User: What shape does this take?
Amino acid sequence: MTTTPMQYSRAIEGATNYMRWILEGFGPYLGSSVVEIGVGHGGYRRHLPPRVERYLGLDVDAALVERARALHPDERFLQGDLMDPATVGVVSKEGYDTVLCVNVLEHIQDDRRAVAHLLSMLPAGGHLLLFVPAHPALYTDLDRLAGHHRRYTRDQVAGLFTPDLGSTRRLEYFNPIGGLGWWVNGLFPHRSLDSRIVNGQLDLFDKYVLPISRLTNRLTRSFFGQSLLCVVQKK
Assistant: This one.
């Protein structure tokens, strides 16, 4: 097994403002052809900008792949394991210029090998867009329920790849208010990510709190946030 069992909150699929904010953070590094790793609750396809002309969603879970196909019948989805060289070989031959990997790496035990596989899917000059949970001190019941092996520091993310594999174009913390909320949740026990309390918090954040976090993010992105946003350009 390369990943741990995980739960999802149903509310995250409807967190449109949050998902768009993440993609805006990747900005001009999103190319015209994108492989999304881990379609999970439905993926980011519907939020990608119009310039994305070609898309592939990859997930190890057959049920999630079938669900994604039902939600997006005009798009292509593939069941496959990121840690399987055969799967990586299939994707790399198709010449996608961008690999999008949002909240996946923390589920994989051998994350350094996973990053090497992600970069090997790209041609020279292509971009790997990583988004992972930040600050090991914030690890809570919610991380355990989500199947997270870890949360990351900036140095840990930077250490996942060597200069001969790629160079960092952007590496910053993301969503400070979300980080504070995650810390507060850690003060209380949780049995499910799909509870009324967790879903309610997500809805509230997406509708009302996110604009405040966006403004604050400009001041805190060098040292604090719920997540880390990273862009790596392949050598």
Residues 1-5 have pLDDT under 50 and may be disordered.
